[in-house]
Amino acid sequence: MFPIRYGKTALLILVALCFLLVTFKTLKKDGTTYQYDYSNNTQRENAAFVILARNEDLGELRNTMQMLEDRFNHRFNYPYVFLNNDPFSDTFKEFTTGLSSGKTYYGQLSPEMWSYPDWIDQEKARVAREKMEAEGVIYGGVESYRHMCRFQSGYFFRHPLMNQFDYYWRVEPHVQFKCDIDYDPFKVMREKELKYGFAISLTEYGNTIPTLWETVKEFMNEYPQHIIPKDDPDSLIELITNDGGKTYNLCHFWSNFEIASLSWLRSQAYLDYFNHLDKAGGFFYERWGDAPVHSIAAALMLKKSEVHFFYDMGYFHNPFVQCPSEPGWLPAEKCSCDPTESMDKHWWSCTPQFLKLVASIQDISSLLSHMKKPDPPSPNRLYKCTIATSTITPAQTTTQLLLSDTQSIILPQRIIDLAMILQINSKIPVSSSGFVGHIQPCLNKDPPAAHQPKRPTWTESHAYIRGSRTNADQLRILSMEINMIHACKITRSLKPRRSYLSRRQDSFVWGKPSPLRKQVLINKLPVQH
């Protein structure tokens, strides 16, 4: 009996091991998942990350995935779609699946997606590469880079593994996410009916696309039904041209980060657009990138309200970072990037130009509507809001919006967003046009002179912004939205007087003096519910 009992045990163990081995081998096939889709009872959109990678990218990709999981995906468990022009190794599959909280899919590209179409003269393409390399054009001599740009422009969304999804989030090996993402961008895309989202915008190298715009204009003439007329208020064409469409200003969304609608890319309008460009041969005879291809299409075909700036990702792709400016996010460890290095503050960024085009209360509201709403204010707390006229010099008068005792979760970035718009419209330097922080309490405790009004004591969080007199309407729009969110009453000074605060008293805690401020009327009222 003793040997028989242990023999049965050994047989059961052997059968179990064989079953596990068969299961493990089955799960390693392309297009299948390695692991169960762990559900955290969070409702997800029909979306996925899509990553074009090689086996040798595994190390950098794991670093990116770990950051993306920690910052975002451990809350939502979205799947990953990995694509490669060569077969993925078992090691690649095993080590990427081990980091994912959602399903993982692995696919290989078909020859149609990663090769020369039959109308391309490959000898002409080779000569063009050699010429561009000799001229020092970035990636000018790299053949695989051209296949990649063509694939990302017109084929990734047609891979069979992508057919099941409505939205995608493009991720590349070696990128970083510097901020916690505590909301679902895919949900924002669906609820706001957005078609395209970006984090960084900049100008393209002109020597990589010498004939792209002329080819685009040919497409516009041939397919006018696909284009939003440039005189339409919803048109974004002014983002990509400064002369009514004669030339391309090189502005584009950096496509290594994009969250977008697959239905738009699958539309007949976009397919006609890509096919027209593809037939022209510029992906191989020049070095057309997928970033300007996507961006031009978005500017021509999408409404302003359908394109979104994801400012709060803390997205880094060497050498640029998009870092949000909320002063409380760094101390709270929500972000680990430096706002002073943010790409949108550089002169070569096209993001301010985009924000200028979409400047409206609806767009500003949409920009931050996904942020966490503040807790309902206490009925006993006092809120102070005012719009005031300020004099910096006798020749320069501005309009201010002063807010005190406001919730810091949602208000500061709204102020910053409007500040960026005001900077463009009023040409006020970044260093003096917008600021969010805490204003110091009044330092002088002596009673005011008889001719001076009583000073307000600044003890709570404050937000401060100024813009030119012509932007008073925009400030009023923002104040109305603040009124809806924070239930504070806005009062306007009708007869402002000379400033009664000294320069030392009227300064910010970070040492940046404010302009001298004229007397403003501040009402202190209980919050009404």
Automatic annotation (TrEMBL):
<dbReference type="GO" id="GO:0005794">
    <property type="term" value="C:Golgi apparatus"/>
</dbReference>
<dbReference type="InterPro" id="IPR002685">
    <property type="entry name" value="Glyco_trans_15"/>
</dbReference>
<dbReference type="GO" id="GO:0006493">
    <property type="term" value="P:protein O-linked glycosylation"/>
</dbReference>
<dbReference type="Pfam" id="PF01793">
    <property type="entry name" value="Glyco_transf_15"/>
</dbReference>
<keyword id="KW-0328">Glycosyltransferase</keyword>
<dbReference type="GO" id="GO:0000032">
    <property type="term" value="P:cell wall mannoprotein biosynthetic process"/>
</dbReference>
<dbReference type="GO" id="GO:0016020">
    <property type="term" value="C:membrane"/>
</dbReference>
<comment type="similarity">
    <text>Belongs to the glycosyltransferase 15 family.</text>
</comment>
<dbReference type="GO" id="GO:0000026">
    <property type="term" value="F:alpha-1,2-mannosyltransferase activity"/>
</dbReference>
<keyword id="KW-0808">Transferase</keyword>
<dbReference type="InterPro" id="IPR029044">
    <property type="entry name" value="Nucleotide-diphossugar_trans"/>
</dbReference>
<protein>
    <submittedName>
        <fullName>Alpha 1,2-mannosyltransferase 2.4.1</fullName>
    </submittedName>
</protein>
<dbReference type="GO" id="GO:0006487">
    <property type="term" value="P:protein N-linked glycosylation"/>
</dbReference>
